[in-house]
Amino acid sequence: MSIRVGEAAEAPSFQKAAFKLLDDAQLRKNVRHATDVITNKRAIVVGEQHDWQQLRSAASAIKQHTLAHLDEYLLKFEGACIAAGGHVHWASDADEANRIIIGLVKQYGGKEVIKVKTMTSDEIGLNKAFEANGIRPHETDLADMIVQLGHDKPSHIVVPALHKNRQQVREIFMQAMGFSELGDKPEDLTNAARQYLRKKFLEVKIGFSGANYLLADTGGVCVVESEGNGRMCLTLPNVLITLAGIEKVIPSFRDLEVFLQLLPRSATGERMNPYNSLWTGAHKGEGPQYFHVVLLDNGRTRILADPESRQTLHCIRCGACLNTCPVYRQTGGHAYGSIYAGPIGAILTPQLFDMQHSQSLPYASSLCGACYEVCPVKINIPEVLIHLRGRVVREQQSGANLEAIGMKAMARIFLSSRRFEAAQRLGHIGQWPFVSEGWVKHLPGMLGNWTAVRDLRPLPKQSFRNWWREREKASAKSAQDRSRSTKNLSS
Amino acid sequence: MPESTNTREAILNRIREANATTPSFEYRTIERNYQQTATLDRETILKTFADRLHEYDAQVLEAKPDTLAATIAKVLLAHNQKSAIISDDFSQKNLPEGFTFQRESESTTEHMNTAEYAISGCEVAIAHTGTIILRGARKLTLLPDRLLCIVYENQIVETVPEAIARLEQFKTEPLTFVSGPSATADIEMTRIRGVHGPRFLDVVLVRNQH
To answer: In whole angstroms, what separates CA A1 from the centre of its chain?
Structure first.
C-alpha cells in the first residue's frame, strides 16, 4: 500500500525544521496573532455554552460507538447513498483514491474542477495528480487559494494561510490574478477573490469536496464552511465528487445536534459558522445530478487496530489543539512537515505513516495537556503522544544505533549501585575539560544535543550516597563515644 | 469498476479485524445529558434570535402577518429595488403590489447571478445560534447579492437539538443552515462580511397576530 500524507515523506525532522522556522520573525508574529484571536473568541463562546462538557462526552461516546461498528455504519451509509441516487467508491490508499477521482473527472469529460476546502485531498496529493493528468483544480476557499496561488503549503487545519499577512497575500493575488492595482485591506483582497472565482463557479461543471460528516441513516453528507464557496461548489456544478475518510461517518442525522454545536465554537470561535450544507445523493432538478463519494482508508484501519491510539480517529478537524499548543504557537504548521500540524498532526501523521521518518513528531510537544483540555471530542493527545514515543523507542532499540547502545549501557549502570557509583566517580574525574564557571555548557558528540539548549551543573565532588554513608559512619561513631562516656559516668 | 469490490471487502475486513476484541456498547445507551429542550420564555427566545442576527451584521425587521407585504416593500424600496426572485413555495398573498417578482423555477442561473434580491421563507430557526435553516432553494439563496428571509415566530426554537428534531422529517432533502451573511477571517483573522454568498442578509421576523 502506498500511504501518503501530503509530502511528509520528504520532510525533515520536526526539530530541524522548527530550528529554522524560529528565525522567521514575520511568520511567528503572524501565527501568534492568529492563534491569539481564535483562542480568545473560542474561550468566550465555549464559556457561554453551559452544557459544553456534556456535549464533549456525548461526542466522544458517539465516535467510540461508531468506530466499534464502523463496518456496519459504512455499509449502511453506502446502501442509503446509492438508494438516493449516489455512487460509492472505496479506496485503500492515496494512489487508488487519485485513480478513482481522475477516472471520474475524465468520464464526465472535465478539464477543470472547483474544489471546496478539504484536508483529505491534500493528504492524498490530489492537486498534483490532477495536474499530471491535464486537469486544472481551482481551490475556492480564500486561504486555500492563497496557498495554491502562492505555491505554498497549508500551515493550519482550519486557517491554512494564517502564516501570511495582508501584504503577502496582496503580492500573491496581484501576480496570479493579473490585477494591476489592488489594495491590501482584507476587504479588497476578499473582493478580488469574489470577482475572480464567480466566473469559475458558474462555468466549471465538476465540483469536488471533502465531508465533515457522512450520515449513515440517510446516506447524506454535511459540509461546514464560512465563505459560501462550499455552497457554490456543492450546488452549481452538474457533477459532484466527495472524498471522505472512513472515520467521517456518524450513525444518524440526529447526531448533528452534538457536532454542529461543538465544531464551530471550537474551530473558529463562532456560535455557528455561516453555512452548513446537507445533501443526500442526487436531488432531481436541484444541484448536481451526478454524485460520487470516495471512501478513503489510507492508513486509518491501521490506527483503528491500535487500542491505545484509535481515539485519534475521533478528530473532527477543528484545529483547537493547534491554537492552544505552546509548541505550535512558536513554530507554526510547516515545522511538522505534514498537512496535519500541531498536536493532532503529531499523533496522526506518524500513525498514518507507520512511523518511518515521522518519528520526530511525537516529541514535538511538552506534554502540557492543553490540547486534551480543548479537544471537543476528548482525544487524550498527551496519552497517545507518550504511547507513540514508546513505539519510537522500541523501534530504535531493535536497530544498532549509537543512542540505543548508549541507553542499554546506561540501563546496565543503573541496575547496580556499585556500577552507578563507579560511573559517578569516573564522570567527576572526566568532566573537567567541559566545566567553565561552575557550569557544563557544551558536551561532545551526541550529548551535545542535550547541552545545545540547556546548561548543566557539573557532578559534585561528593555524591549524596557518599555523603550519607560518611554521615552514618560519623553518627555511629559519636553514638559509640556517647555510650562509652555514659558508661563511665554510671560506674 | 472492479476496483471497488475487492478494495471494499479488504477495507471492511481490516475494520473487522481491528474491532475483533474491541468492547462496544449500544447506540441507544449513549448519554445525552446536554440541553435538548427550551428553558427560556418565548419573548427571550425571540430577542436572543434577533440579537444573534445583529451580531452577524444581519438586518432584522418585525412585521405582523397583515403587514408583511408592506414590510417587504419597505426593504426593497430602501435599496431602490423594483424586482426580486422568490422561492417557489413563497405565498403570493405576502407579495407587495408594484414590484416584479419571478419564481426560482422560472429563473435561469444567469438571471439569479445578476439579480440583486432573493426572497425566501425558512423551515426552522435557532435562537441560540442565530441560524436559519432553508429547505431547497439552494441557488436562489446563494447567487443574488442580498437575501431577504421571512421567519415566522413559531418557526423559531431555542436550541440546536430542537431544530434537528423538527428537521427529522426533511432530513433527506437538501438543507442549508445560514448564520449571517457569508464571511471569512482568513486574512489576519479580520472578519469580512460577504465573500461568495450573499453579502447582505435581511430578516423579517413575523410576529403572531394579536
So the answer is: 22
C-alpha to C-alpha distance for A70 and B147, rounded to whole angstroms:
40
Instruction: Return the residue matching grid coordinates 465516535.
Output: A63
Strand partners, B101: B84
A8-303: what fold?
Rossmann fold (3.40.50)
DSSP chain B: -HHHHHHHHHHHHHHHHHTTT-----GGGS---S--S--S-HHHHHHHHHHHHHHTT-EEEEE-GGGHHHHHHHHHHHTT-SEEEE-TT--GGGSPTTSEEEEGGGS-HHHHHH-SEEEE--SEEETTTTEEEEES-TTTTTSSSEEEEEEEGGGEESSHHHHHHHHGGGTTS-EEEE-SS-EE-TTTT--EE-SSS-SEEEEEEE----
* Whether the Cβ atoms of residue B135 and residue B174 lie closer than 8 Å to each other: yes
Domain B37-206 has CATH 3.40.50.10420: yes
pLDDT digits (tens, 9 = 90+) for B166-188: 999 999 999 999 999 988 888 88
Q: Are A339 and A154 in contact (CB under 8 A)?
A: yes
For A62, the closest chain B residue by CA position comes to B30
Domain ranges of chain B: 37-206
In chain A, which residues have their Cβ closer than 8 Å to the Cβ of B22? 67-68, 307
Residue spans of the domains in chain A: they are: 8-303, 402-451
User: Smallest CA–CA separation between B169 and chain A, in Å?
Assistant: 11
pLDDT at A401 over 80: no
pLDDT at A10: 80
Q: Which three cell numbers stand for residue B143?
A: 447567487
CB of A34 within 8 A of CB of B189? Answer: yes
pLDDT bin (cut points 50, 70, 90) of residue B1 is: very low
Closest CA to A336 of A363, A375, A311: A363
Whether residue A202 and residue B25 make contact (CB cut-off 8 A), yes or no, is no
Distance (Å, whole) CA A62 – CA B83: 48
Instruction: Identify which of B16, B182, B189 has the shortest CB distance to residue A34.
Output: B189
Would you state the pLDDT for residue B20?
95
**pTM, 2 dp:** 0.90
H-run or E-run covering A113 = strand A112-115
Nearest to B176 among A50, A57, A275 (CB): A275
Percentages helix, strand, coil for chain A (3-state, rounded to 5) are: 60, 10, 30
Pull the grid cell for residue A205. Answer: 461543471
pLDDT per position as a tens digit, B85-97: 999 999 999 999 9
β-strands A239-245, A206-209 pairing: parallel
Ranges A60-69, A402-411, B38-47: which has the least confidence: A402-411
Neighbours of B98 (CB within 10 A): 8
Put simply, the answer to whether B174 touches A246 (Cβ < 8 Å) is no
Q: Please name the member of B34, B130, B196 whose beta carbon is closest to the beta carbon of A229.
A: B196
A251 in helix, strand or coil?
Answer: coil
Unique residue bearing C-alpha cell 560511573: A423
